[in-house]
Amino acid sequence: MKKTVLTAFISVIVFTGLSRAQDSPGTIVEKYLEAVRNNDYERAYSFISGSDTTIIHWLKLIQYIKKITPLRLTEIIDLAHNAARQEITSTSLSDSTCQIKIHSMIPDMEETLRITQNPEEIKSLLARGGLPMKERSGECTLIIEDGMWRISKVKGISSDQAADIATNFAELILGKDEAEEIKIKIDVFIRLQDRDS
């Protein structure tokens, strides 16, 4: 009797551990998007496959931009991330790959910055539902790696686009000269990343 109870107990523990470890592709994508929205890049990395460095480059670029830009600009980047809303619209699963399509509503920061460049006023717009938004669609490809689903590719924003957006924001908020200095640093960072790939 004791042996049967012990076997059942161990089975429950193993099954529970496996079910937690075997998150569905959709759950992985949702956790990744939540980590990016919350600027938790270390957590975001944990959902990415080692097979494609594009996503990692993009996340590292965002971290770098936030490191070299003044707090005023960093606050606005954080607000833009936090305001984004994504929804999975379809999942196509095969044996070892999965395609997930995503519909996003993201802040239209160019329009927002025409209204105000003050982070507190942008927060107020967001709280009142008055922040200008725009639609985007994207797609994540996932593969099984070490027995877990991992994101291997994201169609959507690239490092080049992220660099352009950051430079445009910097020009609007900080002025042309400071934006140019930031652009030069970003270009050097991207070249170093490309060289090390």
From TrEMBL:
Its domain of life reads Bacteria
* Record keywords, A-Z: Signal
Which region is the signal sequence? 1-21
Q: What is the protein's name according to its record?
A: SnoaL-like domain-containing protein
To which species is this protein native? Candidatus Brocadia sapporoensis
